[in-house]
Design brief:
Blueprint (H helix, E strand, L loop, with lengths): L2 H17 L35 E10 L8 H5 L7 E5 L2 H9 L6 H5 L4 E7 L7 E7 L3 E7 L7 E7 L7 H14 L8 H4 L21 H12 L1 E3 L13 H5 L2 E4 L5 E4 L2 E4 L10
Antiparallel strand pairs: 1-6, 1-8, 2-3, 2-6, 3-4, 4-5, 7-8, 9-10
Length: 279
């Protein structure tokens, strides 16, 4: 075989191997190897300039495999609390079969390490109940699913190591405003899904909350609004597919919050209290 042809064969073989999924012994899918560079958070994010005591990171909490350990769900569910981030994953054949049956929403599970992201929050209608806040295609930002729906999925749960410093009142405000501002179609960021550009990821006040997000960017924006800036975003969100893996592997830092309150459609400074009030 001529050297030129040999080089072509070696090159194609390398490319095919790099695009193949990297499965562990349990056949869990970890996305295409060639796309892993896309899923890296910024190496020069805000946490690098923050004081050590203000830095934060996601810690693995627990995992659930719906096929291998269905009986463990109740125990895993009771470990969850508000603020925990849920990263959904599928096994290689499971994702492939779903796509073959026409479920194109599962393509992300084949390309990336995680295919969906949500954050556990208290139900706005019943604070004693935990629900999942996320954004989905044709649904937009929503809290339609409670944590019992996690029984039908495989997932990893992560928790910020400084969650006690997050302003949960502002988190609830973000959820309320994001849901009210977006519709089922308009509320999903299709440009962000393809990594072209992302909706506002650093909203400091209600007016700056975007109208459309994907599942990962809505978690980034919600946490920023609540007091933590993640290093997940690169190039200020331009030409950056912010993947679920990019979020949960990100470090971050606690940031000061604006001292404002909302009355009707007008925003005012106030003398005390760290969060927004909506009247």
């Amino acid at each position: 075989m001529r050297p030129t042809k040999l080089s072509i064969v070696i090159g194609l073989t390398t490319l095919l191997c790099s695009c193949a999924s990297q499965d562990t012994e349990d056949h869990r899918h970890h996305g295409w190897y060639v796309l892993r560079w896309v899923e890296k958070p910024s190496a020069n994010g805000a946490s690098q300039q923050a004081k050590p005591e203000d830095r934060t990171t996601f810690l693995p909490l627990t995992s659930f495999d719906e096929q291998q350990e269905p009986d463990s769900f109740d125990a895993k569910k009771h470990q969850l609390q508000e603020g925990d981030v849920i990263a959904y994953w599928m096994k290689k054949n499971e994702a492939r079969q779903a796509i073959a049956h026409g479920d194109l929403t599962k393509i992300g599970y084949r390309l990336l390490n995680y295919g969906h992201l949500a954050i556990v929050v208290k139900d706005p209608e019943d604070p004693a109940k935990l629900v999942l806040f996320s954004s989905q295609s044709f649904k937009g930002p929503n809290t339609r699913e409670d944590i019992d729906t996690l029984k039908d999925h495989s997932w990893d749960a992560f928790r910020l190591d400084q969650w006690q410093r997050i302003d949960t009142a502002r988190l609830h405000e973000f959820i309320q405003l994001a849901k009210a501002r977006a519709g089922n179609w308009a509320g999903y960021d299709f440009s962000g899904m393809f990594g072209l550009w992302n909706s506002t990821l650093e909203p400091g006040d209600p007016d700056s909350i975007g109208k459309d997000y994907i599942c990962s960017t809505i978690v980034v924006a919600a946490l920023y609004y609540s007091g933590v800036k993640l290093d997940a975003v690169q190039r200020m969100g331009l030409l950056d597919l912010v993947s679920p893996q990019q979020v949960v592997s990100s470090k971050g830092c606690i940031i000061p919050l604006p001292d404002v309150r909302i009355e009707g459609t007008r925003m005012h400074r106030r003398k005390s209290g760290p969060h927004l009030q909506i009247h």
